[in-house]
Fold each of these.
Amino acid sequence: MGVDVIVAENLTKTYGGRRGLAGLDLVVRPGEVLGFLGPNGAGKTTTIRLLLDLIRPTAGTVRVLGLDPRADAVALNRRIGYLPGDLVVDSRHTVETCLGFLASLRGGAGRDRIGALAGRLGLERSAPIRSLSKGNRQKVGIVQAFMHEPELLILDEPTAGLDPLVQQTFLAMVGEAAARGATVFMSSHVLTEVEAVADRVAIIRDGRLVALDTFAALRASAVRRVDLTFTEPVDPAEFAGLPGVTDLHADGASLRCHLTGSPDALLRAATRHTVTGIVATEPALEDLFHSYYTGPEPIDAR
């Protein structure tokens, strides 16, 4: 698989007495799309700025593409495509001039792809930057991040301001980048778009990593509501204390509970009776992540 693309060890950033990042340990594998999620102020943008050497860590280390972001900044900049949360460019120029200038900073790399990418996104190249809406400025940012086919894409809220059709085009571009072997590190608040493209998800809260896994694994570990019905009333004591079972309620021939983890023990207990119905309700995607944003932190999220 090669060298891990991003390796952060005890990465820490404080701003005076204010916490930005508190001992982050994170590994991003070659060729994967990693969704980087968390509430506002969790440390997502701080992490991205540290990866790009836009700010320096208070403690800890980080390697990007096997290199030191500080010592090897020039070499890394040619291999990375970066889309900030709010792109700021010289508003006096046209889109064409702006993108051509940015290509020239990389020795002309990607200049021949500007037209095709702009066409896919519906971006008018002759338009002055100052006349663009938020969504069209975002398109400029997407083109400059993708045009040189970088090994690593670092995307901070990449679909902010885009209409739904352009969002789908963007997600297709992410998929194409991953298919050619690029690694994508994407911070976003739009959970459905992350779920559509991410191989794994890292969740950060208060500057610390609280979860790192696939969507499927996170869903499997979530609390589900289970409703069971039987042909006759059951004794709830038979189900009390089963692994993963909480909030147990019985009403005649019906039994309701919350379940975390494997349903095996619950199903084994249920099949001692005649079961007439079973419904397991998965948490909504937003509820699942809200539990990580606000609930108790896992003991070990690494």
Amino acid sequence: MTDTETRLKALMLRGLEGDAPAYRECLALLGVRLRAYFARRMSGAPGDVEDLVQETLLAVHIKRATWDSSQSFTAWAHAVARYKLIDHWRRRKIRHTLPLEDHTEFLAAEEHDPGVGLELDRALASLPDRQRILVSDVKLAGLSLAEAGARAGISEGAAKVALHRALKALAERMRHADR
């Protein structure tokens, strides 16, 4: 087990036990690795990197109960990131392939001081109900905008606008949390 795996797994386990500072540190460290991971794969679209980081951190947060603590945390987180990247490419009709073996590269991301990071529960809770549900439905559950809009009782266009505003608000909170 690498030092990174050991550290992240210990922080995640503490976070699952209710240690909020450990959980924030885990997500912040994971965010550093995600930024490096996505930046290497998104050289033609650097503006999408932060969106993918946020989507992946949200998915990790919401799906954290599905992680088997007897298994590698970074392998699980890498799989979440990989699927988010593939989904991103599919939405944009980009055809790329990713080797399954790039998990070790994910672990090798340059480490920086993560600072406080973003507490995802609070960030999501700060969104209006409709926006929070749309983020969850589209970015985490994988529903189309039309499906998510229908569930929310709004048009696809209104769902797209609301989702855009929600992601923009989350990104803004992340920028302020990093200061």
Amino acid sequence: MNLKQHPVISSVNLLVENLQRTMKFYIDVLGFKVLEETDTEATLTADGKTPILTLEQPSDIQKRTRSTGLYHIAFLLPNRSDLADIIHYFIKTQYPLQGASDHHVSEALYLADPEGNGIEIYIDRPTDQWKWDGDQVHMTTVALDIESILREASTEGWKGMPEQTLVGHIHLQVNELQKTKQFYCDLLGFEPVLNYGSQALFISKHRYHHHIGMNTWGSAGAPAPAENSAGLKWFTILVPDENELQAVKDRLQAAGEYIAEEQGSFITKDPAGIRVRLSVK
């Protein structure tokens, strides 16, 4: 599974309370670059040309309360040496991490931006090392072998997000799993690849370990966020071509789902009230 060949989640839009403070984190701490910037909005990139994260500060922004929305954005680095370099960097700068886990298919760090939005920074293990039981992928959550990773550090050290960095997946807080599963799988074309008890589910395309995670940890029965609530505004799913985009739109319309047209794309809402933008690659 090569996400460069099969990108699925392309970008994420966040509403923030303090644009300058949040920009400073993503640029100075994580090493993204500014692609476009206004007084109220900034689009960030890893390669200097492709949008990967947009930060927007509305004039009437509200603090996020208990609601559905973002659990974390997961930035996929191209090489294990990149993960080693950023670990060295976090040790040197003493930036606080929230966790570090080996998921068998991947190795990951966890932290948060200044507004509490969750972030995962990870690398994938080679796909021939993944284990599948039919259509279910084997994933674990065990301690990360930091020493093993650090042995692969580059001589250059951390120089900011590598150009090949992608949004590997996104993890959502939803209020109910079954209806959300039906929306993403039956209407948007994803496949379930791991049921994590009764409170979490992982889904993907092209037999990736997951492009979207969803859980009800702390959000079971929660309302959708307000229009101007800080947090996730929308995320973008890419489809291969115009025919597939139209097919998805037809399924959503037949199911009576919300659709807002955009030039060359459209926005819908999942059962948790989370906005999803669909666009052609």
